[in-house]
Design brief:
The protein is α+β, with helices and mostly antiparallel strands. Helices cover about 40% and strands about 10% of the residues. The strands form 2 sheets. Strands 1-3-4-7 form a 4-stranded antiparallel sheet. Helix 2 crosses helix 5 and helix 2 packs across helix 6. The longest helix is centred in the middle third of the chain and has 19 residues. It is globular.
Length: about 170
């Protein structure tokens, strides 16, 4: 709890991932002893979700956690967006695809301070992260790079004036 509260930019994404993790059917269908059930995938998922809820109920980092959750949802939505194979193989297209206007990723820089999660942020003992690089704008298109999962790269402009290229990939 203290780790998330004091260093949300370094820990929240991992807890979000744990709280949304899939629980294998074999883990939910088998009977476990009391000691082995404490660290089962289902308990890990529930504990991570519960911990995020507790920390979000505090005023100090609720907005930051909410912003990071929205960022994670936007990245997942973009990663899972289907891409037509013809677009990827079209010569001279640069493999660019327009991001539909309704997608969450267009709203990341609006009305909230969302950190660019791929930018290194030095851990700060006092928990002050006002220097975190945040989204200011992003391109309305992404580029598909080769690979089985069709990874997507979108250019974003950070609050430090630099351009960044986060990569997302689906299944």
């Amino acid at each position: 709890r203290r780790l998330i509260s004091k260093h949300p930019h370094h820990s929240v994404m991992q807890f979000i991932s744990l709280s949304h993790g899939a629980v294998p059917v074999s883990q939910t269908a088998t009977k476990r002893t009391a000691s082995s059930s404490l660290d089962s995938p289902a308990n890990t998922k529930n504990n991570a979700r519960d911990l995020l809820q507790v920390v979000k109920s505090t005023r100090t980092c609720a907005e930051t956690i909410k912003a990071i959750e929205q960022c994670a949802a936007a990245y997942v939505e973009l990663a899972e967006m289907p891409v037509d194979a013809e677009v990827v193989s079209r010569p001279g297209s640069g493999n660019t695809v327009a991001i539909p206007k309704h997608m969450l990723i267009h709203r990341l820089g609006q009305a909230m301070s969302v950190p660019i999660l791929t930018v290194y942020l030095e851990p700060n003992a006092d928990g002050n992260y006002t220097n975190a690089v945040t989204f200011t704008s992003m391109d309305a298109q992404f580029k598909v790079i080769g690979g089985i999962n069709l990874p997507k790269v979108v250019d974003v402009l950070g609050s430090d004036g630099k351009r960044y290229r986060p990569l997302v990939k689906g299944r």
